[in-house]
Design a protein that fits this description.
The chain has about 290 residues and is of the alpha/beta class. The chain contains eight helices and eleven strands. About 35% of the residues lie in helices and about 20% in strands.
């Protein structure tokens, strides 16, 4: 019988550190590893992870991949008004700067002022007008000084003015009232016929046991009646919503799911070719 492999010592030590310190060390490691590429002649600007961590993958490559998904799955065209929900340091904005025409328009918002400042400083010239807004709402890691809550935040766009909205790795960090409000705001912002591209962790009955048993990328624990979190002390760090509840919020927001959910492999399944990590939903506002 094969004996279970012991946990590496450095993972044990890392587990004893506060979560924010672990995240900062991870960002520092990424930044140090990226220095040779940054020093190459002609290297494009890439934000430091320690400035605003927006996940793994090469910055510009991931941005172009998300843009391709917006075109192929959400029907984005170069003349559209695009709403970037949680734009971070602008990895998709860089790709959109080359894609949108003068008839198009970009609005992006985020809570991290340092990341937005870097984005504004380094964005390439674009034909379309770009509007970048700091969202003055409380966030455990990026904006603790604000008393305003995401559950009451109003997106910085007029009602019915947006053709395509997208939120990648945003709903995985929102508390239930915040997520419900963000879906309602997507519904308000979209024009009739507009589309939204959203990623999330959707907990289904089939996924519950594997997620709680630790076969997902982190063990998930019940959080209230509608969610499951990776850390009950910092629930926004990683959160999954009961699928039926999430789809109820979608319906309440006046949105419909089309096509069906594309489930990711975050819960420990062996990934199929082309399968993404998070679940993908394309939501449409009926005409």
């Amino acid at each position: 019988m094969t004996q279970p492999t012991s946990r590496p010592w450095y993972r044990t030590v890392a587990g004893l550190l506060p979560r924010q310190m672990r995240r900062r060390l991870l960002c520092l490691g990424r930044d140090l590893a990226s220095i040779p590429a940054r020093l190459k002649p002609g290297a494009r600007p890439v934000p430091w992870s320690s400035l605003h961590d927006v996940g793994g993958g090469e910055f510009h490559t991931v941005g172009r991949a998300i843009l391709n998904s917006l075109v192929t799955e959400a029907g984005l065209t170069p003349d559209d008004h695009v709403l970037d929900i949680g734009c971070g340091t602008g990895r998709v904005a860089f790709a959109l700067a080359d894609y949108l025409t003068a008839k198009g328009c970009y609005t992006g918002f985020d809570v991290a002022s340092s990341g937005l400042a870097w984005m504004i400083r380094h964005l390439p010239p674009a034909a379309a007008p770009f509007r970048i807004v700091r969202a003055d709402v409380f966030n455990t890691e990026y904006r603790q000084q604000s008393a305003a809550r995401a559950a009451a935040y109003r997106f910085p766009v007029s009602s019915g003015s947006v053709d395509v909205a997208f939120a990648t790795s945003v709903f995985t960090h929102l508390l239930p009232p915040d997520a419900e409000n963000y879906l309602a705001e997507i519904g308000r912002s979209l024009r009739p016929g507009g589309r939204a591209y959203v990623t999330a962790f959707l907990m289904t009955p089939e996924r519950l046991a594997p997620a709680q048993a630790g076969r997902a990328f982190v063990p998930f624990h019940p959080f209230g009646e509608v969610a499951h979190v990776g850390d009950v002390n910092v629930p926004e760090a990683m959160i999954a919503f009961d699928e039926a509840v999430f789809m109820g919020w979608v319906e309440k927001a006046g949105l419909v799911l089309s096509p069906p959910v594309k489930y990711g492999h975050w819960c420990g399944e062996a990934p199929a070719p082309g399968q993404e990590f998070q679940d993908i939903l394309v939501l449409r506002k009926p005409v």
